[in-house]
Each structure stands twice: as C-alpha cells, then as structure tokens.
Protein: Polygalacturonase-like
Amino acid sequence: MALLRSLHVFLSLLLLFFNHALAVGFTFNIVSLGAKSDGKIDVSSVLQTAWAKACDSSKPTTIYVPKGIFYVRSVSFNGPCKNNAITLLIDGTLVASSNIQVLARTKFWLEFNHINGLSIVGGVIDGQGTALWDCKRSGKSCPNGARSLQINDTKNVNIWGLSSINSQMFNIVVDGCQNVHMTGVSVSSAGDSPNTDGIHVQQSSNVTILNSNIGTGDDCISIGPGTSNLWMENITCGPGHGISIGSLGKRTEEDGVHNVTVISSTFTGTQNGNGVRIKSWGRPSNGFATKVHFQRIIMDNVKNPIIIDENYCPHHKNCPGQASGVKVSDVTYEDIKGTSATEIAINFDCSPINHCTRLSLKDIKLTYENQIAQASCKNADGIASGVVEPSSCLA
Ligand SMILES: *[C@@H]1O[C@H](CO)[C@@H](O)[C@H](O)[C@H]1NC(C)=O
Ligand SMILES: *[C@@H]1O[C@H](CO)[C@@H](O)[C@H](O)[C@H]1NC(C)=O
Ligand SMILES: *[C@@H]1O[C@H](CO)[C@@H](O)[C@H](O)[C@H]1NC(C)=O
Ligand SMILES: *[C@@H]1O[C@H](CO)[C@@H](O)[C@H](O)[C@H]1NC(C)=O
Structure:
C-alpha cells in the first residue's frame, strides 16, 4: 500500500516536473539560485528571489526544491502575479528553526497571499514544534508559535502529496480562498501537542480535501465561519480531536457555514479524540451551520463519535449562563459504525433558544464496551431511519 502510494506520488511528481520543465514556462531550482541543503543556512531569501521571478513571469513557472534539508526562517509569497500557474515542487524538506524565539513574533512560517493559480506538490514541511510544545505543556510563558502553512485570499489552489510534520501551531490554514483542492496530504504532530490543528478552513468556498491522513494533538480538520461547499473524502483522523465545525459564534456578527460533507472516513480514538463535531460558543451570535452531511464513517474507540456542543465556554469567561445564538440545521448522519470510548456515543447538546432542527440519523451502530452505547439529546429535533443504535432521542 505505502510502497504503491509512494511510487504513484513519485511518478506523478516526475510527470508534473517534466511537464513544467519541458513543455511550458520556466523552472527555478533553488540550489541553482544559491540555496544550500545543510539544514542550517537560511534559504528564505533564495525562495523569495525565486518567487519574485516566478510571480513576474507571464508563463507558468515552477520553483523546485530538490532533495535535501533546507532551513527556512520564514517566507511570505505574495501576489498578485503575472501568471496563474505557479508550482512549488518540493522533493526535499523545508525545516523551521527549533529555537522557539525565532518565530516568536511571526504568525506564519510559510505564507501565501493574493494569488490566483498556485500548486504545492510533494515534499515535507517540518515546523520543528517540539520545543514549543514542551514549553507550553510546562505551563511556562511561551511564544504563541507560528502556523506552518497559511494560504490567504488565493484562488485555484492545488496541494498535492504534501507532508506537514511537527507544526508549532495549526499545520495548514486556508483563509479567504476559493477552489482549493488538497489530495494525499499528510499531517503528523504528536497526539498531545497543543493547538496543532491539521487543516483549518475558514471564509472559503469550494474546498476539497481527499485521501489525506491526519494525526495531531488538536482537531484533524477544523472549519471556521464563512465556509461553504467543503468536501472531505477518505480522511484518516487519529490521533486527533476529530473533524470539527467550529468553534462558531465567538462573535455576534458572523458568517455561517453551509454545505459541508465528510464521507468515507475513519476516526481512531485517543484520550481526547472526537469523531464528527459541531461546536459553538454559548453566547449570542447570528452564525449558523446548515446542510452538513456525514456519511460512511468508521469510529474506532472514539470519544464522542457524534457530537453537537453548543455550550462551549472555555474557562467560563464571557459566556456563562448564556445560550448560543448559532442555528444548527439540516445535519445528516448516515452509515456511521464502530466503537465509542465514552458511554454516550451520540450527544446533541443544542441551544435552548435556537434548537437544532432537521437532524437526521440513518443506519448508525455504535457500541461502548461491547454493548450498545447511549444517546443524549437536549433541544434537538429531527428524525431517525434504518437501524439506529443507540436508539435515537431526537424529538
Ligand atoms: C492572512 O490572513 C491572516 C488571518 O486572517 C491575517 O492575520 C494576515 O494578516 C493575512 N496576511 C495578509 C498578507 O493579508
Ligand atoms: C463553487 O462551486 C459551485 C458549484 O460547483 C459553482 O457554482 C461556483 O461558481 C463555485 N464558486 C467559485 C467562487 O468558484
Ligand atoms: C484513501 O487515501 C489513502 C491515502 O491516505 C490512499 O492510499 C487510498 O488509495 C485512498 N483510497 C481511495 C479509495 O481513494
Ligand atoms: C455543495 O458542495 C459540493 C462540493 O462540495 C458541490 O458539488 C455542490 O454543488 C454544492 N451544493 C450546492 C447546493 O451548492
């Protein structure tokens, strides 16, 4: 399997590379531009130079990072550009500094802004976050840390076969983007690493995430306000806190989330695991989540396999006693099977002032310690069909 996959990725990379190198446009090899692959000398300015050339070209252009380890302090790749097909083709590894002070005042390690037509193919980006996680876990005062890959205000993006490991904070963020396709992405951060969401999507539409394998210390995929037409298929999540829509409703005025699908995916539990979650702050907001579809999902010892939590209020600050204004509606759960690590496998805890409506459960079988698990409903309306175990508590 793994061998086949790497062979496939390798051949496809080769094809892509030759397509670009021979058929169209230019290729800038960062080593030819002076980058050293010793993992110590900062290649940020070489990448920046390559980007300036690529962005200024009127033809499709590839920036090629060959095999080897390249140290990158931090880079912003900014558009708009004169062509709409720039590829960053990575055969080697980009590594961040392991010194937590280096990115202390930087929110993003690798950042792309205002581009139309961007591909990031192959390779490894290594955020070297372990020292920062240790600092955070020790309770000392530490820098926030940087997100490894931030893509802002960008259209027509392909991310293909990229591995993000040990990000200090969120691994990959898509913010304010349209038409983004991610395939064969892999994320790996320790199961107890703080705030290392695998992929975060917000204010974006038409995003697909396929065939990706995510293991991390926070949400495998988190979905923020203003997301629509998001399709996730064949995702393996674990360790991690599951796929989560939210937290929504942090702000009073907020864009909603609609048309989100998770299909044919597997969740493997850890102590903090979750399956599919919709989560909102317990405070006033005009936010919403609607037309959400979870189908063909396997849960393997997952804490909270199916959960809607509309009472999120960390540290009981700025919301205790308040009800969530976020409206959750039209959510379907179909063909979800496996084992729960908590007795309550289905937990709908919806807002007392804004009930969840049109929830639907179909063909569910979740067990807890070899017995049928339990379902809990608060303010949750909807229907069940097929065989649903634990039996539905929807009103
Ligand atoms: C990218 O988006 C982030 C989050 O919205 C923002 O903080 C940052 O300033 C943006 N960068 C640019 C160059 O627009
Ligand atoms: C998103 O996809 C929908 C449906 O395929 C399409 O109608 C719409 O134009 C797309 N939006 C953008 C911004 O490309
Ligand atoms: C699912 O994704 C994995 C990679 O995580 C891939 O190896 C496998 O071929 C994909 N399955 C399908 C049916 O596409
Ligand atoms: C919902 O999103 C999917 C892609 O994720 C798209 O194909 C479909 O057209 C969208 N539906 C609507 C009603 O926009």
